[in-house]
């Protein structure tokens, strides 16, 4: 699927403080604010003089803009890529005015606006914030390649199922899906909804061809499960992935806004440290609403492991993470479980990595 560029922004909002808040927030998120109309005539003039720019722009307006003309506005609306109407402090509201309240914080505003630059399937997802929401959704991502994030996702989901929590494990790593292989679930991608793997554990594999089913899937899962664990794959450039519309980024985009927790898993070697540092730096200038958990996986034993953990913490503590986890390197049991197409608990319930994940599972349900 071809990459689609972010729209540029045009503001036409009467309240100067609210307009400055919106324009400033979006500018820091990477959008280009190409015109800030101070009155309705300024908006019309820019639109007519710059049709190409207007056609790629997201217009943010309030109908109490000075000299606003509703009939003229209706005639120019098709000139813009998309339009969002806001009710400012001076707006006289009606029941069907289709206007939105301006989100009170920069994070909430960025989340709201990002929803309008994604594909329709993502735009239909806000109903998840309903009273019937039940599942706790944990998205597990990788700060680079070969971090063992998929192994953690699979085994964390299995540990939740052992505690009799109805759990759905979703493989959303469209480039390198591996959960079906790991758990010996043949033809999993053809499953309409999800498949029972073991008692209390269900599995689902997303594909590019069926990515448009994700919104319906996650909405249904949100009601039916206690936990949803999503393996979202590698985060190459988080700031870009949170706002592009390619299939590979859609679930990451959703997870940044709607998941309860976003885990970012790194590996301890020098390349892993470099990639983790890059992702952490991006997080520092990116607004997401999910709670962040940083995970150092495959920590070595002894003095070498102490140095690895020290380097990890020096990066992780620069960000506001809800949890920091350090997972031990358990090569023997992870290799055995992979070869047997089984979980860590099934091959050795006393393994050090298995015990660490069981402890986290207990913490999550407490």
TrEMBL record:
Cross-referenced InterPro entries: MipZ (IPR015223), P-loop_NTPase (IPR027417), ParA/MinD_ATPase (IPR050625)
One Pfam family of this chain: MipZ
One Gene Ontology MF term: ATP binding
Keywords: ATP-binding, Nucleotide-binding
GO CC annotations on file: cytoplasmic side of plasma membrane; cytosol
Key word Nucleotide-binding present: yes
Gene Ontology terms: biological process: negative regulation of cell division
Keyword presence, ATP-binding: yes
Protein name: Unannotated protein
């Amino acid at each position: 699927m071809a990459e689609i560029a972010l729209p540029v922004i045009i503001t036409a909002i009467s309240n100067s403080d609210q307009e400055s808040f919106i324009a400033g927030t979006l500018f820091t998120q990477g959008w280009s604010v190409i015109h800030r109309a101070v009155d309705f005539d300024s908006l019309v003039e820019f639109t007519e003089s710059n049709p190409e720019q207007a056609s790629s722009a997201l217009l943010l307006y309030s109908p109490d803009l000075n000299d606003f003309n509703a009939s003229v506005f209706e005639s120019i609306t098709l000139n813009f890529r998309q339009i969002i109407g806001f009710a400012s402090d001076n707006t006289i509201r009606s029941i069907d005015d289709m206007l939105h309240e301006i989100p009170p914080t920069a994070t909430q505003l960025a989340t709201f606006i990002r929803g309008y630059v994604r594909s329709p399937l993502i735009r239909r997802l806000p109903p998840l914030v309903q009273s019937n929401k039940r599942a706790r959704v944990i998205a597990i991502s990788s700060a680079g390649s070969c971090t063992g994030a998929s192994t953690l996702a699979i085994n964390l989901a299995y540990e939740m199922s052992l505690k009799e929590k109805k759990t759905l494990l979703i493989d959303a790593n469209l480039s390198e899906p591996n959960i079906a292989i790991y758990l010996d679930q043949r033809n999993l991608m053809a499953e309409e909804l999800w498949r029972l793997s073991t008692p209390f554990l269900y599995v689902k594999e997303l594909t590019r061809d069926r990515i448009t089913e994700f919104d319906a899937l996650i909405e249904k899962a949100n009601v039916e499960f206690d936990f949803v664990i999503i393996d979202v794959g590698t985060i190459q450039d988080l700031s870009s992935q949170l706002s592009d519309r390619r299939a590979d980024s859609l679930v990451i985009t959703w997870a940044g806004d709607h998941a309860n927790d976003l885990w970012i898993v790194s590996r301890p070697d020098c390349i892993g440290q470099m990639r983790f540092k890059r992702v952490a730096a991006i997080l520092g200038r990116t607004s997401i609403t999910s709670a962040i958990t940083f995970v150092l996986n495959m920590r070595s034993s002894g003095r070498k492991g102490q140095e690895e953990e020290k380097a990890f913490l020096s990066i992780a503590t620069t960000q506001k993470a809800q949890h920091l986890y350090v997972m031990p390197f358990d090569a023997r049991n992870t290799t055995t479980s992979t070869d047997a197409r089984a979980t860590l608990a099934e091959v050795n319930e006393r393994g050090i990595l298995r015990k660490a994940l069981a402890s986290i599972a207990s913490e999550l349900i407490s």
